[in-house]
Specification:
The protein contains 2 helices and 6 strands, in the order αββββββα. It has 116 residues and is of the alpha+beta class. The strands form 2 sheets. Strands 1-4-5-6 form a 4-stranded antiparallel beta sheet, with helices on one face. Strand 4 and strand 5 (78-84) form a beta hairpin. The longest helix has 13 residues, at 98-110. The chain starts with 19 loop residues before the first helix and ends in a 6-residue tail after the last helix. The relative contact order is 0.16.
Length: 116
């Protein structure tokens, strides 16, 4: 997690056989922030699921993503939305650094199934 000063907390396994998954299963988050992809809501009038991107996405795509803390889904800290063929907007705020936001976008593009 990056704080307002731009410094971050290092998270390392206690033992080489443990990793982030093991920590999360035990509920030991420490300085970690668990993010969730916001889920679209069903719109009966259009007969489809929709998610408001506030004008930052104008085309449908499986790579349109909004990440928010699991505890506060309305506080989006990473948004990626398709605006043209091969063009996406990326918006981010703390706790993301520019490098983390860029890496997250690369991971979303690299995910062959399109699910994140």
């Amino acid at each position: 997690e990056v704080d307002s000063d731009g410094s971050f907390e290092s998270v390392q396994p206690r033992h080489h056989t443990e990793g982030l998954e093991a920590l999360l299963k035990r509920g030991e988050k420490g300085g970690l922030l668990e993010l969730k992809n916001r889920q679209p809501k069903w719109n009966a009038s259009s007969n489809m699921y929709v998610l408001d991107f506030h004008g930052r996405a104008s085309l449908p795509s499986c790579r349109n993503v909004q990440l928010a803390p699991k505890a506060k889904e309305s506080d989006v800290c990473f948004l990626m939305g398709k605006v043209e063929e091969n063009r996406f907007n990326i918006d981010f705020k703390a706790p993301f650094s520019a490098m983390q936001a860029f890496a997250t976008a690369i991971i979303i593009f690299d995910n062959s199934s399109g699910a994140f």
